[in-house]
Known about the structure:
The complex is a heterodimer. By secondary structure, chain A is an alpha/beta fold. In chain A, 32% of the residues lie in helices and 23% in strands. In chain A, helix 4 (107-117) runs parallel beside helix 6 (153-165). The radius of gyration of chain A is 21 Å and the shape is globular. By secondary structure, chain B is mostly helical. Helices cover 73% and strands 0% of the residues of chain B. Chain B is built from 12 helices and no strands. The interface between A and B is medium-sized, with 34 and 28 residues.
Amino acid sequence: MSVLNVEDLRVTYTTKGGDVPAVRGVSFSIDRGEVLGLAGESGCGKSTIAGAILRLHSPGTRIEGKLELEGEDVLSLKPGRLRAVRWTGASIVFQGALHALNPVQKIGDQIQEAIQVHGMATEKEAAVRAGALLEQVGLPPRRKNDYPHELSGGQKQRVMIAMALACSPTLVIADEPTTALDVMVQAQVLQLLRSLQHDLGLAMLFITHDLSVLVDVSDRLAIMYAGKIVEEGKANEVFHAPQHPYTAALAAAFPEIGDTRFRHKPAGLGGDPPDPQLIPSGCPFHPRCARAIDACRTVVPELWDAGADRRAACVHVAGAPSLDSVMS
Amino acid sequence: MKTEPAITAPEIQAPVLPPNKLTPRQLRWARRRRTLGRFWQQFRQSKMGMIGLAILIFYAGVAIFSIFASKGALDPTITTNGPRLAGPSLHYPLGTQIDGISVLSLTIEGARISLFVGLSAALISMLLGTLIGMWAGYKSSVHDAILMRITDVFLVLPWLALAIVLAAMFGQNFWIIIIIIGLTSWAGTARLVRAQVLSVKERTYIERSRALGASDAHVVIKHITPNLMPIIFANTILTIAIAILSESQLSFLGLGDPNAKSWGTLIEEAFNHGALTLHAWWWLMAPSISIVLVVLGFTMVGFAMDEIVNPRIRER
């Protein structure tokens, strides 16, 4: 059974300037012990999905579709049950650990907070557990008496990971856990996340804009563009043999050291992601796509089969229906 | 879960702090002492704050002295056999008033009343302002809009007129005065607290706490309130100054409690008996200067503290 099952999820922010569809119909599922990587540019809806799983959005936000966490429909939960599911069902490693810790509380207390909010242990037991969790993420247990400003960026991120594990959730959502960390620390944190995920058999949703990070960490990869998944498949295959032009552009943006092709021709992707309120007609990527044809302006691509266990939303993939049938 | 205590138990028992084994409670107090020490170090740097503090300590001493001394020689009802309207002398350092009562003893007595009214009214104002500000800042836009319009009304209302009406309606009682001042002076605090809550509640650790499954009450008590404390504290001290001034104004207008004579009441009596035309300047002087000094003292301490807790206005 899959831990998380998302079907046709739509998240719309209601603002004074009109509705902003941030996520426009996304479906995916994560199995027990599986890591799904979610990648895309800023503003494509990655973090919105993370927030939607625990229903953290402000009251005005519309969330539609189906969102099942361990078979329980998150979107129809009553407030009390929702609070109980938060952190015990799924926890989040927030982006920017520097801000996700309260500066005036000791980190041990903040880890304990998670356990005690759910009444899972007495204060003493929770304190012991907080120490054990810190040890699990490679920090000495006595550091639980430290305040956030006494820790380095990498250590703070470790604390966030310890906190995410506090209530033994089945799903951990890592929302850009390595932003604002230098490359060395980033590698350590990724290593830690991976070994913990492996040892504890966690399901994980790993969100980042850094494709090269995702390839190392995740089993499967989903690429998002303008609120939709445009390609998904096994991590290695998606990265090394992208089917969608957008994935290809993202993958090409990471030069491989020693590869002469990148030395002579660094690749990038021009233009900006579209305004969610002004999504282009047809394929939303067509204004920036090098391989766009006339049909792209009118045909809205769906996730068509693109090889074994792979799907991509582009008219060029093998599984796409013939253009005539789509346009009629 | 079962194996974890086994791993950590020796770790916890191991002497982490070998030289002085402190219990968590002792550690917590040591840390608080250190924080307070740091605050004091910074406060000492401020000449203004230290002068204000000296004034306040003096008047606090006077007020405490009056609590113990009022049954004896300083009781205004007993010492009515002195010379009337006598100027300052060795026996009456600040002179006597029209009934022959020592102005010094009245001023000492008034210190207790004025300070008590000021502190109590500021406490009410702070509690009310904090509660309303927090509610408005944390709750949804509808609550916010309603509460802030009410706050606006209190902010623009000519408070003296309102206070006079209320005092006239509910009588000249010491406690009524406290409540009236408390009820009319919370609007500024509410605005300040609301603004701070709006900024604090958007911080990521609040979202984190909500993601943990924390209730609104938990978030407000554990995460938002501690962040507001310094600002509320500094603001309350400034409010005390305003409350004392307000009390003096009300008393001067004859709305004070005749049985608990504050400095304002003393001035009112002196004024009504024509102390100035009788050239009895000493009758007015002591209470007036006391009001000025105490208000100045609270304002100076308040500003000095504001400078410490509010990094944006800290001098470099």
